[in-house]
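Exercise 7. Given the components listed, write out the predicted structure of the assembled complex. Treat all entries as one system.
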Amino acid sequence: MLKDCQLDHIAIAVKNIEEKVKIYRDLGIHFEDRREIVPEQKVKTAFATIEEHAHLELLEPTSDQSPIAQYIAKKGEGIHHLCFKVTDIKAKSAELKAKGYTLIYENPVKGANNKLINFIHPKSTGGVLIELSEELG
Ligand code: ZN
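Answer.
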């Protein structure tokens, strides 16, 4: 199914990015200094490159209404989603919908790093929230 996908990032929900960056620094993984606020998701993000294409993403809620704040309140901090990069997110979303998967958004929305994103609901994927992303040119 996800043959033309490659791992883009693993995202971790945290209460405070700056506190958690230290843990990864101790492991030898360096987060970029840049932080990005994504108003659509009510989160602040930080990225670290772990392999050629794969990153770690830390997600800190910027509001109690953030889905990440709600996630942390329910499940605590921890791995939140996997993200796969696809070449055509609209086509991939339509293909998955036709196969019976539940997508979070009817149409892809804007995410961090100038990308279009959508999510496959964890009830469709055995409990894993999967993000799909397409880089905008
Ligand atoms: Zn993500």
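Discussion: The longest helix spans residues 17-27. Helices lie at 17-27, 67-75, 89-98.
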